[in-house]
Amino acid sequence: MTTESSAVSKEKLVSDLKAVVNDAEELLRASAGQAGERLAAARERLQASLASARAKLADAERVLLDRTREAARATDAYVHQNPWQAVGVAALVGFVIGLLIGRR
Prior knowledge:
Largest sheet: none
Number of strands: 0
Number of helices: 3
Number of domains: 1
Mean pLDDT: 81
Shape: elongated
Order of helices and strands: HHH
Low-confidence stretches: none
Strand content: under 5%
C-alpha cells in the first residue's frame, strides 16, 4: 500500500506542477503587453524557470511511468508464477469489498 500511496502522491504532484506551469505561462502571456526593464527581466527569469520546470516535470513523468510499468511487470510475473495464490487474493479482496458494500 505504501508504494501505491507513493505513486498516487507523485501523480498528484506532477498534476499540481503542470497546473502551476500552465498558470505561470498564462500570466506571462497576460503581461506581455506591459513595458519596463524590470518587468522584462522578471519575465525572462520566469520563462527560464518555466523551461526548467517543464524539463523536470517531463523527467518526473517519465520516471513515474517507468516505475508503474515495472510494478505491472512484477505483478504479472508474480501472477504467472503463483496463479492460485493470485486467485485466492483476488477472491479475498472481492469478498471484503462485498462485505463493505453490503453494510451500506
